[in-house]
Amino acid sequence: MNGVNQDAIIADEIRLLIDEGFYQQGDKLPSELELCKKYNVQKMTIRSSLQILKDEGIIKAKKNSGHYVERKRIKRNIRFFSSTKDLLEKNGLSSEVEIISINLIQATKEIFEKTGIYVGQNLYCLNRLRTIEGKKAMIEKSFLIADYFPELDKIEFINNSLYETIKKHYGIQIDRSESELYVSEAGKEESDLLDIDEKFQVVKECSLNYDYENRLVEYSVNTMLMELYYFER
Fold first, then answer.
1. Are 24 and 69 in contact (CB under 8 A)?
2. DSSP helix/strand/coil, 169
3. Would you give the end-to-end CA distance of the chain in angstroms?
4. What's this model's pTM, rounded to 2 decimal places?
5. By the number of CB atoms within 10 A of the CB, which of 9, 29, 55, 189 ranks highest?
6. What separation in angstroms does the CA of 216 have from each of 29, 79, 116?
7. Three-class SS of residue 100?
8. Comparing 6-69 with 74-232, is the CATH topology the same?
9. In this model, does residue 189 exceed pLDDT 60?
10. Phi and psi of 138, rounded to 5°?
11. Percent with pLDDT over 90 in the chain
12. How crowded is residue 213: how many other Cβ atoms within 10 Å of its Cβ?
């Protein structure tokens, strides 16, 4: 194999074999030596290829054993808006949503600093727990401007897409999103809801979501298990 970026090319080929089911979750990959012979490259190139796949969460290394196919991660591109339900369906995954709470609150100084929504403005705070393939995976907290969504707390949300629901009942459709990602330690509420230890690292996605009239209609904070997602820009 000749040319530049051989490690990326080999990683792409192995990734394709996994995507097509040639290697299944839990399967052991060929040894580094076998891969060197297969692709006619040096060991450092193979190690670099495997590292690419490990960084993406596609494979994992076991000490003194080799490399194994991990659970397929959900690819999430933060440059483009997509509802969680649509994203999961695209990845062939089933999910269920439990309503934790929905309350009418007033915007705090902290919310103002993050969003520009003035202090005291009425917001609906919708807090939900999403289970993916039977695993508690995400806490979805939405702050929706109450003026746009009167009596939102009387609408049924269980297992229904939030964005499909507000489009149906209020004619409001999310057009674009501005998102920020960061890694954080789980607090007590997150620990209890996701069945993880406190201080366990999670990914938080904070988003400002706008409709087709360029109005900010929602501020959302999603807390996700790192092991389930692969983020790209």
1. yes
2. helix
3. 29
4. 0.70
5. 29
6. 47, 17, 9
7. strand
8. no
9. yes
10. -155, 140
11. 60
12. 9
CATH of range 74-232; options 3.40.1160.10, 3.40.1410.10, 3.40.50.2300, 3.30.1780.10:
3.40.1410.10
| pLDDT tens for each residue of 27-86 | 999 999 999 999 999 999 999 999 999 887 788 899 889 999 986 667 666 666 677 777
Kindly state the tokens that stand for 89: 């369906």
Least confident span in 16-20, 79-83, 129-133, 148-152:
79-83
Residue type at position 44: M
Mean pLDDT over each residue of the chain, to the nearest integer: 88
Q: How confident is the model at residue 228 (pLDDT cuts 50, 70, 90)?
A: confident
* Domain 6-69 listed as CATH 1.10.10.10: yes
69: left (phi over 0), alpha (psi -120 to 50) or beta: beta
The residue assigned the tokens 């508690």 is 136
